[in-house]
Structures are given as C-alpha cells and as structure tokens.
Amino acid sequence: MHDDATALEVSTYICSLDRKARKAGVRFRMGDDFEEYLSITSKIAGKYPTFPNFRPDCSQLEPGKAFWVVGEDRFSKVAHVQAVRVDDLAPTNLADHLESLKACYVDPARHAGPGSSCVCVAPTARIISGIVAYHGDLWLRSDLRGRGLARTLAGVAFGLAWAKWSPDFIYALVPSWLIQKGVADQYGYLHREAHGSVLSLPDRDIEDDDWLIWLTQPELSQLIKSSATETIERLS
Prior knowledge:
The protein is of the alpha+beta class. About 35% of the residues lie in helices and about 25% in strands. The chain has 8 helices and 8 strands. The longest helix is centred in the last third of the chain and has 19 residues, at about 215-235. This is N-acetyltransferase domain-containing protein.
C-alpha cells in the first residue's frame, strides 16, 4: 500500500524510542535465540514464567519468525524483556489458532498436558487472519514502572515487527488489571475485547482469562508514520 510506513520512517521511529529509553536508563539488545532468552527470563525474580508461546521446547521459534528484546540498566542488569512471534493464519483465524492450542504448542497433542484448553469468546478474533504477530512476555522491573515507559517499550516491538513482517495484525493478551489501569492504552493498542483467551494449562499452573488487544496493519503503519513525522519536525 502506498500509505505504508517507509524504511526511513520505521528507522526514525525506532531510533527515537531507543533515545527515550536510554534517557530513562534502559539500553536494548535483541536476538532470536530463544534458548538464550529463556535462560535470561528464568532468572528474573518476580517475573511470571515465560509461557509456552516463547519456549523453544514447546514452540517453533525459527530465526526470522520470532525475536526478543531485553533492556538492561547502566549496570548491565536486566530491567525489561518482551518477545514477538509471527504466525501465518491465512488458512484459519486467531480464535481457532488459540483454541487449538497451536498458539502455545507446535504439536498440542504431544506437548499439552492433560486438561489443557483454551476458549476464545472475543468476536473479532474470528476475523483476525493473515500474517499475525503476537506480542507477549512483556515485563518491566518495578523500580522503572510509572515513568511513562510503556509506550516506548511496546513501540520498539511494534517498529521491529513492522520492519520484519508488516503484519496484517499485531495483538497481545493481557489481564483485566492492565485494562483497568489503562496500561493497554499506554502501549498504543486501539482495540480490546474481553475473554480473548480463557486459557487452562494445569501442568503449568496457568489459569488465565485475558483480554485481546490489537492493531490492524494500517493502524500500525499510521502510528509509526505519525511518530516519525513528529520526530523529524522536532529535529528540523
């Protein structure tokens, strides 16, 4: 599409977010080795365990189809993590993808424990299809919360996802408290529906009822373009 964010706009967008994070004391690095990512996240005190979606023993996380971002403070201590993966849902839709447990496991019949299930009630999930990016495992250390970093951190994921895949949709699954506190709005997601993933994985002590939040491709492109334009005008 002729209105898609250009490579220059994406670069400007990501660089501006990187500068904001550095001013707040966070430096990013990224990768696609999820064995390394899991070794990092498993040592973070107070963070919930990384879900199967981003565990290499459960999901296919091939280079080019998934990446992670780690933020470190000035002492090289982990201050932030998040991850993004992309799935080709052209033959199906997000609701079926979630309910089949393929969002969690490459082979649910082999990997999912007894009693595992997922129900998706969010109506728009039935029409979310095509190239779909999932944004999850987002965590920020407690001493850095409340500093307005939510949009910066999510924005880095948005920019990198656009640069790699220009997805038809990007979505996240978040608990009700993130909706109630307005954190989902701070991330930059424009849409939300309740009961996007009512997930039960008894063998992993997971019992969640998450909201579905998402952006469409044109909305993601416009977010990047608008922010890049503001940055360029401010610097000119």
